Every structure is written in C-alpha cells, then in structure tokens.
Amino acid sequence: MNTTHSEAGTKADPMTPTPGGGTSTGGKKRKASAEPERFALIGVWAVLIVAFSLIVPQTFPTAANVSNMLSSQVVLLILAIGLLYPLRAGDYDLSVASTLNLSTVVVAILNVQHGWNIWLTVLVAIVASLLVGVVNGFVVTVFDINPFIVTLGMGTVVQGLVYLLSNTSTISGIDRALSSAVLTRPFLGIPVGFYYAIVLVAVAWYVFDKTAFGQRLLFIGQSHDVARLNGVNVPALRWRALIISAGFAGLAGVVYAGTTASADPVSGAAFLLPAFAACFLGSTVLRIGRFNPWGTLIAVYFLVTGITGLQLLGAEQYVQQLFYGGALVIAVILSKLVRNRGERKRRAEAADPA
Amino acid sequence: MTAPAPLLAVTGLAKAFNGVPALRGVDLDVLPGEVHGLLGANGSGKSTLIKILAGFHDADGGTVTVGGTTVAGPFGARGLRDHGLGFVHQDLGLAGTSTVLEHMALDSNGDAPGRRRIRWKAERARVTELLDRFEIDVDPDVTIDTLSPVQRAMVAVVRAVGSQELTSGSATGGQILILDEPTVFLPRHEVGLLFALLRRLRERGDAVLLVSHDLDEILEVTDRVTVFRNGRTAGTRATQGSTRDDLVQLILGAHDEHVAKGAATVRSDRPALLSARGLSGTRVRDLDLDLHAGEVVGVTGLAGSGFEELPDLLFGARHATAGRIEHGGTVVAKPTPARSMDAGVVLIPADRKGQGGALGLSVLENVSLPFLTERAGGLLVDWKSLDRRAQDTCERLNVIPANPHALFGHLSGGNQQKALLGKWMDTNPQVMLLAEPTQGVDIGARREIFTLIRSAVAHGMAVLCATSDYEQLVEMADRVVVLDGGRISAEVTGSDITKDVLASAVYAEEAS
Predict the structure, then answer these.
(1) pLDDT interval class at B104 (50, 70, 90)
(2) I need a labelling partner for A231 at 20 to 30 A (CA). Which of A315, B245, B335, B384 fits?
(3) Which positions in chain A touch B338 (Cβ < 8 Å)?
(4) A346–B347: do the CB atoms touch at under 8 Å?
(5) Do residues B268 and B290 lie in contact, with contact meaning Cβ atoms separated by under 8 Å?
(6) A25:B400 CB<8 A
C-alpha cells in the first residue's frame, strides 16, 4: 500500500478526503516507503558490467582490469568526497582542481628541486591547500559573496600560482616512497590508495549522518535562514566546509603525485568536471536529492566502468568527455524530476491528510 | 454620476485552494473616472482577486468583463494586461540599479523579438512626456535607488499607465490601473503626492482600483469603496457620506460576531523574562516592552507599522539599530539567535517555508536540530532517541501524519506549525516569540495551537505574538500592544480586547 501511495493520492479528489485514508495514521511504526529509484544507478551499473563482460570477455572481466579501474579513480574519489562538504552546505567549490594541482606541484618542487624529505613536503602541500580553503571561506563569509564566483576566481589565481611555481614544466622524479605508499597492493591485488579512499568515504558518511556538524551543514544547504534561526553559526560552518574541501583536494594532489611520481601544471584541471559529475550523479543514488558519500563512490565507479568498457571496445579519448559531461547534465535533470515528483506528492497529501 | 458602463466588472468570481475557498463569489465594478477602494481584513480575498486578474491563479468560476467585453479564463501568465489592465504591486517591481528610462523602455519592447533595436531617442521623448504630463519631477536617467520611496511609487504607477497607453495606442485615458497597497512602505507625509497623481488619473477618465488597509487613505482619495469579508463582497459604498465606523463594521461584520473574552490576567507583578529598552530597528522606533512570566502579549498594527519586525529584533535575528535587550534583567551584549536560544528565548517565524523549517528534510531532522549535541558532546548524534522523541512529539501534538520520516515540506501548513511548536516546546523555553503563528493554518490546527500555547503559558512561559489577525489576539492575548509608525500607540488589556477595540486602535492612529 505504501509504495503505491503517491499513485493513488494524485487521483484523489482534493475536495473530498477519502474516508478510509484517515485511520491508518494510528499505526505506530510506518516504514518509509521503499523507493526503487534509489537503486536505479546500481542496476544500470550492473547491466553495464554484464554487458561489457559479454562483449569483451578477454579484457573487461579480468583481475588486472578491475584492479586498474579501482585504483585509477582514487584521486578523483578523494577529490569528490571533499567536494561533498561544501555541496552539503549548498556551496560550490570550483577551486578544488587547481588546489589539487597546487598540492602536486608543491610536492614535486620541494622534493625534487629542493631535496626535502618527502613526508615533510606532503605536509607542506596539504597546509598550502588548506590555506586556499581559508582564503575562499574568508572571502565568501566575511564579504558574503556567492562562493561560485569566489572559488572560480580563486581557482584561477591558484592555477596561475601553479604555473609560476613550476615554471610551466613537468617535474618528475618524486621520491618512490610516496608511490609505494599509494600503490602497494596489500589485499586482493588492489593498490592501498583505494582503501584509503574507502576509509575517507566511510568517515564522510559518519560525519554527515552521525554528527551534529554534518546535520547542521545539511540545514545550511537547505536554507540559511532556517539554520540561522535555529542558532546555527552559518558563516563559520560554511567556512569550515570550504577548508575541508581544499584539504581533501590537497590530499588528492598528494596521492596523484604518488601515482604518477611526477607533477605537471595542467593535468589537475581535468578533475574538476568529473568530481562534480560524481557528486551530482551520486546524489541520485541511495539518498535521492542529497549529496552522499556512498552514492558518490558508486557514481565514480559507474562512470569509470562505462568509460573503460567503451575504450576497450575501441572508443577514443572523447568518450571520457561525453560520459562525464553527460552524467552531470543527466544527474541534475534527474534530481529536478525527483523534486517535482515530491512536489506532486506533497499536493496529493495536502488534499488527503492521511 | 450618471452610472456609465464600468470599465472593469467582476461577477461571482470564485477560487479555492486545496478545497479551502478563498473567494466565494465576489462582485466588483470599477467605473471610468473613479478611484475605487478595496478594503478587507487579512484573508478576506483581496489579494486572491488581484492575483487572479494578474494571472498568478486561475479562477474556478465567475466572469470578468473589461470595457464591456467578457474575457474568458484562464487569463494566462500575462493575466489581463493585454486587455488593458495595469498593475502596481506592493513591492513596485522596480530594479534598483536600472534607470527610470530603462524600465520604461522594457515595456515598449514588450514581447518584441530580442533583435529589435531600442530607439532610445524616441523612448526618451516618450518617457519625458509621460513624466511631464503627470507632473512628476524625476530625471529619466537616474537609477531607481536614488529616488525617494514616493518617487519610486509614482514611477511605478506612471510606468503602468505608459505601458497601458502603448497597448491601446492612445494617451486619452480610459485605462484600468490596479494598485495593491502602494502606500504601505511610504512615509506618511509623502502619501499625498501619490494621491495627487491618482486624482490626475481620475480626471482623465481612468479607472483606479486601490487596495489598502488604511481607512484614512481610502476615505481621503477614493470615490467609492468595496469591502470584502471572508471571500464575499460585504458591500460597496460611496465614500462621500461614509464614516470610518461604517467601514470598520463592514470589514469586521456584524457586532454580535465577537467572542466574549474570558478573564485574562496581566502579570506585571511578576519579573520580566524579556525586556526591550529603547529598541529601534528598520521600522520599530525607541520601543520599551516587558514580557512577564505567564502572559501572552499580542503585538499588532497596520502593515509597515513595525509589529512584524518586533519578534526578529527581540530574538536577535535582525540587528537592532539602537536600544538593548535584557534577559531576566541582564543586558544581552549582542543578541544573536544562538544566544537567545541559550537564554531560553525561541522564535517561530512567520515565513514557515523559508525560515521555519527545511522543506526538503524530514520532520525528524527538522525537530531534532536543537538537540543534536545533547548527547555524547556533539560527537555522535543519537538518532535512536531523537527518533523516539520526534515520534512522541508528533503524537502529543497530533501532527498528521504522525510519521517523523515524512518530509517536512509534504505536511500541511497547520501540521508544519504544530511540529515546529513541538520542537521548541521540547527545549523548555522561557519566552516564545511568535510571528503570525496561524497564517495558512486550518481552523482545527489553529485551535490546537492556541490550546498548546495557553497551557505552556499556564506553566510560566511568556509569549509574544505578533499578528494582524485580531480574532487570534481576542482568543489568546492577555494584553495587546498596538504599534503605529514603530511606536506603541495603544495598549489594550484583558477583557477589553475585542475585535472592535483592536480595529479602532489600529485604524485610529490619526486621532491619537
């Protein structure tokens, strides 16, 4: 009954509440109605996996390919998870990709050109990234400016800084210790970086679902006024979220430096759109309409499955752009459709208060 | 007046929202060469009528005749604009950083294709001529935000007239202009300028429908006045010969409708839980007020008198420009919502959907917001006990559905309000500030809300209720403070609180 509630409700005449409807509210524990669309993306993902396994059985369903798919997305996943924090609070952070690049370049310069200890350079890179977040948050909250435009500008400033620092050249030869820290295969033949990312996803889930901080971010994202009138310190929390996303970008940059053992001043920018695509597509899974870490994880691997499969079928580089760009647009259309459906449901329930 | 054919005639117009009738068949006709007033209490259907004419809502029944031709609904997004109606809404619809000329040029290009070149010279000539014709001393090239409020209002009116002239292709009058409470945000001494403009429109044979709350304005400027009450036309009168009392009676209905007020107690002997001294805000001026334990203090006044702002100021949601706020005798240095909540002061804002609760989150999440850090020092939210509490609150306050996992936005207005009330009651507040607590709330829920508030007050809570709904104040307030121009103009206590007394206190500001 519950699953078909919305269907029945829309047909009800708003003038005459159905007499039978009013009685069921006495029932104690009404489970939230099962929403099959919560798992739609997982279903499509499964179909993709099966399809590619059947079409290219020699290359797609192999241990090497699976391991490669899982580990190649670690940088993107970490970046996207960090991006979730400001997105939860309703703010865009468009500077994450260049912050990632900054972090990579700082690691390379200090380690390769100045001979610093690799772990010290990692620390400095992450602190530098956090500073970007501090500045972002400062401008956004103190002057009350839309973060979209602030982080767009800051991102470009940081990108310029990256060119300046790196002299517009690729720096290779980063300490192998960093590479082995992210590429060692401790378990099931999957590089350790993947497990780091999973831990960060779990931490994000804990923060969002189990802490007051996460819950307050959610309210800020829904309405600044509601949050403020409930005693939430809106500017402080938005600032904090922007610092966190910058910190995650820095961490992603460090992992990126470890994966490639080199740093170039441009390749980080390519992560911006995929990160947003993953976050938005992730908000259509598990908790529809809500940016959520497990959904983002699924989205990241859904996207890479499609891209890898098509590339194994012989598709060129362009398939990546088609996939990520398409996913972003489809994701926002989907969330809009789901919202509209909720609106219809609300009207139906207003007419029939059961 | 030899009764010429009305320019605008509305007959039997009806509209219901979710089965709740807002208009039950209203009649209204506006003649050429008259300024016609439209009066009515809140919820009487004035704004619904305007919104139907402007195309925001579609009518359920009834006819609208413009200049002798009946227009079939639905009127579409542009409403009756294409049939010769011009609208000036309360917020005037002007963009601060654009110039007068730019606003007017927007109209003359209407729905022309975007490639159409704007002929600025002709445009400027038209605008200058229009401003001159109505004797408005405004430079077409200045931006809106450099104009005084009354200049803005006049620009908005002339803009609507100009736009009508463009549609009809003549400048000879016979336009219909609908002004929706244009004077609310105008300084009192400047209102006369706007009225002079309305008189000029009347002289050239236009029909003006003026919606207002202010009886004096209506008596001053209109020729006839129509009063709505509960979605029906209560009557139409010639202004000449009508008195303020006639109109008040028409607005409120028969005298015997008033409910006798039970014995209410004024608790000035008890200590003040929340006090304001010399408080000033955007509208409130130098206000002193004490809230004592165990009393419900009503605050009311005309729109723009400052009563709407008072709960926000007291809560610290809006910064006061002067004055201080005391919690139980100690001055609060810089009131913020968080500090007020710590002191046991809570606010239920009027804008339930925008400020009260997050529509996209569940009832559980909404009612749990103040309790998130209650356990485990904020490290871990104890959803299990919060869920129990929310379930309990929903059942105790009879929130339907009594399901904490329902989306807050899916609840009806009354149930949303009950959930919010329950949330704040659970924090055991000392002072509750309410702004229009029963706006958009059905009768049943309204009654439950009153009962809840009264019982909380009986346990020593102080309540401030800012509302323009007199009936509500009659039912629940121990004393009512009437604001005018930001200052307290009258105070009514106990059994003296009746709709009549409140209405005359609110409308009688000129006399005092």
Answers:
(1) confident
(2) B384
(3) 231-233
(4) no
(5) yes
(6) yes
